[in-house]
Backbone:
């Protein structure tokens, strides 16, 4: 009977050791899974932050391009106004010169 109890105890200890070993392996797997999960969460958060930053930068660039186009249009309008004023001055000078030529042409040649 003592031998049977000794065998039962030995088998029980052996089973306890195997279960303890499996438990340690399972705990290690759980620990690794938690670490991977934490890394995944960190990567996901970093990705979201970068995505938000890129979206904001794209919007800022779109605004900058829009402002640039608007600025170019305004500059062209100013240039057109300036050129129109020069043209108006030239027409006035041309008119004045034509009047002076007409006056000079109307004078007799000996009065000049």
Residues:
């Amino acid at each position: 009977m003592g031998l049977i109890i000794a065998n039962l105890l030995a088998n029980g200890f052996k089973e306890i050791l195997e279960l303890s070993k499996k438990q340690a392996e399972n705990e290690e797997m759980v620990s690794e899974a938690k670490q991977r999960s934490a890394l995944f969460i960190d990567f996901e958060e970093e990705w979201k932050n970068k995505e938000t930053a890129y979206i904001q930068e794209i919007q800022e660039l779109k605004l900058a391009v829009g402002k640039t186009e608007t600025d170019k249009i305004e500059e062209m309008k100013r240039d057109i106004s300036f050129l129109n004023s020069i043209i108006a001055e030239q027409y006035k000078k041309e008119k004045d010169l034509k009047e002076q030529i007409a006056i000079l042409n109307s004078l007799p040649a000996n009065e000049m």
Observations:
- The chain has one helix and no strands.
